[in-house]
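Entry 14. Two folds queued back to back today. First construct below, sequence then structure tokens.
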Amino acid sequence: MTDSSTEFTAPIRIEVFVHAHTSAAVVEPLTDLVARARRLEDAIGAAVHIETWTAVRPALEELSDSGPSITGTVEAFQSWADQEGYDLEPAFDWRETPSVIGHRAAEVRVPTACVAVYADGDLQCVAPCTDGDRSYTVMDCLARLEEGVIEPEPFDTRERNDGSRGASDSDESTENAERYAHSEELE
């Protein structure tokens, strides 16, 4: 981890989203993920905000007096991905779901954990995402922030396996929990 003297040229805000409906097996790894993000407040002077979210049907969300918050967030993330050449799938998923009365409704499915990084108010990074060849995980994003870098850059899997990146057991268990929880939700 970088020391607390790491300074970014613009104010950094980190938003961490955790799925509100996950299995009990995922609670501890998500707690560890949130703690790691919170350490960035002191390490790099970032403002960290934690929020829970869940899959949503945009048509129902629009009925709310507060308006479409999750849908709007996911749309902003998708706009960033489109502009920067990243893909949010399969972590984020738009689906048509049937109802008991025969109508179909769009549903936005969100990952178990997500990190969005803003510099000077502008969205700079969303994880998880892919660049077509490699995946960029939430843990990759936090590790890059600890190194003082905002931009997405997936770590090479070979680097993790030979230990040169020093991925901890906690990092690995959190990533495994992310994968498990997301696949469980999609079933």
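Second construct, same run, same settings:
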Amino acid sequence: MQGIAKAALITILSSIIIVLLTNMAFFFPWYLTLVSETYYVSQVAATDNYVSRATYEDIKDSLEERPIFKKRKDDIKIWVHKSTNYSFSGDSAIPVIDDSDYSDYAYDSDKPYRQRGEPIHVKIAAVYPLSVKLWGKEYSRDIPVSFEITTTGLKHYKDLPYYEN
């Protein structure tokens, strides 16, 4: 009888492990998508030293339409900042309103872009919905994941002071 109980317990535990590994097999492509999108946003940010509002909306919409990201589209956050303080909106490199000319801003710090050679920090955060269905009952857990890249702006702006080291 003890042998039958051990065999049943081993069968149950191994089936749970197989289900978890199968679910985690979907995590790696999801995470690689997050990494590649962060890299893409960093390249866009490096080109103009900021990301326009229209480009930001396009990137966010395309990310929300991806298969697993679709389940938790409200939890996708994209930050492009001039510093690593992502909570301070004044450092954002995404303008609130798209404008073709930002040179009429009173202070250089109010402009969404920075001068060539300055770092731009890009971070994308999302939530992976880990869910397992065992014996008709679904167990789910949200795993918050983020990826961050620091890039350097390439464009030279004449309306910003340029200091060469």
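Quick look at the second one. The chain has two helices and three strands. The radius of gyration is 22 Å.
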